[in-house]
Amino acid sequence: RPHHWRCVPANGGRVMSVLETVNEPTLADILTLRPITMDELKNAQLAPRTIVSGFLYADVRTRIAAGGVGKTTLSLYEAARLALGKTVWGKTPEHPVRTCIITREDRRGILVARLREVMKAQQFTEQEKRMVLERVQIIDLSSESFRLAHIVGDMVMAHISNIINLCEALKEWAPDWVIFDPLVSFGVGESRVNDAEQGLIEAFRIIRNELDCCVEGIHHSGKANARDKTTDQYSGRGGSALSDGSRMVAVIQPLDANEWLQQTGTRLEVGESGLIMSLPKLSYCAPLPNLYIRRWGFHFSLEAANNATPDQIAQHVANRVMDFITAEWLLGRRYTKADIDAQTEKLNLTRTQIRQAMSELTVSERVVYHEIKGKSGSHYEPATPADSNGDTHQKVVVLGVK
């Protein structure tokens, strides 16, 4: 157990070190039965220390996303806001949160620059920026051969010397959240899959016990899972040991414009992107619904989910197409069937969605298709019912589509 070890620097006091035992307990000491006392029974807690109620606890966590989705920048955004005690994804910490990001991928300067842009996008004051810099730390090990697990004999074991050196470095600062990015760079590789993942889980548990903090690994999703956009706890690359050993799992997938529209009922504007964050495993609180995150540059915001039925969604799409046809008609533009099919970019809809919408609009007689045989000129137009005086007028439909 870590508190029974004393670190002795080797090779000039680098991060890597050898261990010397001090009063190391024997196996018999460790396995000695200790009867549960009444005080222990009374004071035992069902959950570890709460960092952010309903979201983050002092235990092992995994964040899964494909490369390029923005998981590291999202972590910096969360860390910056929590450092000020601000709400993140609808959850507010009771106290400001201290976060340490340990990177073996991006250099410190890159992460510092991203943190700066995140704070700029949030319009933090100079005082708030100073507070964030006090409560967010970055350790750059991208040039170091630093692992949390190694192979001893033929077994994957937690790398005790590295873990203790790290814990000693962080103990006085007392972090609430320690993030390792990317997780694969801290293990023994992927040739052993579940053994490698279990070694990291055991290392995380030691750090959790020593620092009483949330220990998170940022992990890549599997190729098939990324393509299929799965959001269950086993969406990560490799085996199941990582998610099985974690007490919190977050899975992030990108949504294209059509998926975002269907799931939120709102549109992504030019330059924006959409993410869905699923929390399939939260061992210490009730399950949470999926989180929909709109991103523009280094700014993130939470979007409400669309609880509409499939029929309501189809009607919503039909209304959008109707608005488009009406507006274009008033500008003197006439669309054939092929023309309207080609408006996928302007309407931000798939061709299938447009065709289904046109079928609905035609059947409901909201639009009429004038087909001219033998020559060009066939086109759709909005319905033009007669008014009470027998005159006809253009029916313009404005349906308040978001």
Tags for this model:
402 residues; alpha/beta; two-stranded antiparallel sheet; 17 strands; 22% strand; disordered N terminus
Number of strands: 17
Please give the share of residues in helix. 25-40%
Shape: elongated
Structural class: alpha/beta
Oligomeric category: single chain
- Biggest beta sheet attributes: 9 strands, mixed
Instruction: Return residue spans where pLDDT drops below 50 for at least 5 consecutive residues.
Output: 1-22, 385-402
What is the overall number of helices?
14
Describe it.
This protein is α/β, with parallel strands linked by helices. The protein is 35% helix and 22% strand. It has 14 helices and 17 strands. The strands form five sheets. It has a nine-stranded mixed β-sheet, with helices on both faces. Helix 7 links the parallel strand 10 and strand 11. Helix 3 crosses helix 4, helix 3 packs across helix 5 and helix 11 crosses helix 14. The radius of gyration is 28 Å and the shape is elongated. It starts with a strand and ends in a 20-residue tail after the last strand. The N terminus and C terminus are likely disordered.
Detail the topology: elements first, then pairings.
Elements: E1 5-9, E2 17-21, H1 27-30, H2 38-43, E3 50-52, E4 56-57, E5 60-65, H3 71-83, E6 99-103, H4 108-121, H5 126-135, E7 136-140, E8 149-152, E9 155-158, H6 160-171, E10 177-181, H7 194-211, E11 214-220, H8 223-228, H9 241-245, E12 248-255, H10 257-264, E13 272-282, E14 291-296, E15 299-303, H11 310-330, H12 337-341, H13 344-347, H14 351-363, E16 367-370, E17 379-382
Parallel strand pairs: 5-11, 5-12, 6-7, 6-10, 10-11
Antiparallel strand pairs: 1-2, 3-4, 8-9, 12-13, 13-14, 14-15, 16-17
